[in-house]
Amino acid sequence: MMLDDLIPSGTAADDSQFPAMQDAAAEMRAAREGTVLVPLTHLARLRADGEDAASFLHNLMTNDVKGLPADGVRSAGFCTAKGRLLATFTMWRDGDATVLQLPRALAEAMRKKLSMYILRAKATLTDATAAMPALGLAGRDAEAALQAAGLPVPAAPMTQAAADGVRVLRLANDRFEIVLPADRLDAVWSALSSRATPAGTPAWRWFDIRDGLVSVWPGTQEEFVPQMVNFELTGGVSFKKGCYPGQEIVARTQYLGKLKRRMYRASADCPPPAAGTPVHGVDTNGQACGLVVDAVALPDGGCDLLAVVQMSSTEAGEVRIGGLEGPVLRFTALPYALGE
Predict the structure, then answer these.
(1) CA distances from 258 to 108, 250, 337 (A)
(2) For 215, how many CA atoms within 13 A lie in the half-sphere containing its CB?
(3) Sign of dihedral through CA atoms 232, 175, 88, 294?
(4) Given 127, 150, 184, which residue is the final one in a domain?
(5) Shared-domain flag, residues 187 and 222
(6) Other CB atoms closer than 10 Å to residue 258's CB: what's the count?
(7) 17, 134, 142, 163: least surrounded by Cβ within 10 Å?
């Protein structure tokens, strides 16, 4: 079975996202109250092989690649020379190789972009998505479902464990990704789907919103320096690793500048706006004070979202989506402190 075969016929978008396996509202309730199993068809995996692969990526990413432990999982970003994020990644070791996971909508463009920097390095960067399909398992009983299926369970968040060709990444206490050979997909899906509700892409993205974790989509490329999306707070930036594209801007923002925008979690009484939709505050004279980062529909109406917003606007009064007559953002707590 191919991973795309799990998607209900005719529901997939161009970037391989799909709204539901059967019932979107029921699946989102299961994400919030139970356990869901999601085919991660909207994510792609690039594989860097060769003796110089880690150092090649280390010179490009916002995080330490050469120091990534064999059992480690890290976030990282790739920036323009002006320090604006072109993509964010989840990365891990696979033997001597390094795997970068990102939205499929950006994968081929980023593969070509990053490959331009290989030059004389002994490294290759290939799209390994088809050979390494992935499932997302998240929610209250996710760990128990893994154990019942006989799959490895990493001990701590942002670590991985592998057995019999199946690799499990623990992204949070209640959230796992299973990366496996294509010929194991059918058996693993059957074992896990008996203990978790099969669900569409929004259920997985909801956990990113809950945890305050950014994904860069086509509509938000080059919009944010890493600190605007709290990337240094969620482990995506190393300030000790040395140079990479945009490093001077990122470091100056951290140590010398005063950050004016941050990413906030919120809800609103409207369908989910697209990534990149502007938001407006009462203090900006009709000008946008930020952008939506991601949003998903809630089962009983409305949406949860992440938005980068001018900090002064969050203190001045209402912030609305799409204009001063649009839906009001109701800010909710993130699982980490934003600091000053």
Answers:
(1) 35, 12, 17
(2) 26
(3) negative
(4) 127
(5) no
(6) 7
(7) 163
Do residues 29 and 136 share a domain? Answer: yes
* Rounded-to-integer distance, Cα 206 and Cα 209, Å: 5
Question: Both tokens of residue 269?
Answer: 């009484």
| Residues pairing with 78 in the sheet | 61, 87
* 173, two tokens: 């206490």
Burial of 306-327, coded b for 16+ CB within 10 Å and e otherwise, reads bbbbbbebbeeeebbbeeeebb
Domain count, the chain: 3
297 within 8 A of 333, measured Cβ to Cβ: no
- Pick out the chain residues at pLDDT < 70: 340
The whole domain housing 83 covers 44-127
Give yes or no: residues 95 and 120 share one domain: yes
Query: What are the tokens at 175?
Result: 């959230």
Could you give the percent of the chain with pLDDT greater than 70?
100
Out of 127, 149, 177, pick the residue that ends a domain.
Answer: 127
pLDDT tens for each residue of 9-58: 889 998 999 999 999 999 999 999 999 999 999 999 999 999 999 999 99
Q: Do the bridges between strand 35-39 and strand 197-198 make them parallel or antiparallel, or are there none, so unpaired?
A: parallel
Residue 236's region, left for phi above 0, alpha for psi from -120 to 50, else beta, is alpha
Considering the entire predicted model, what is its pTM?
0.97
301 in the Ramachandran plot: left (φ > 0), alpha (ψ -120 to 50) or beta?
A: left
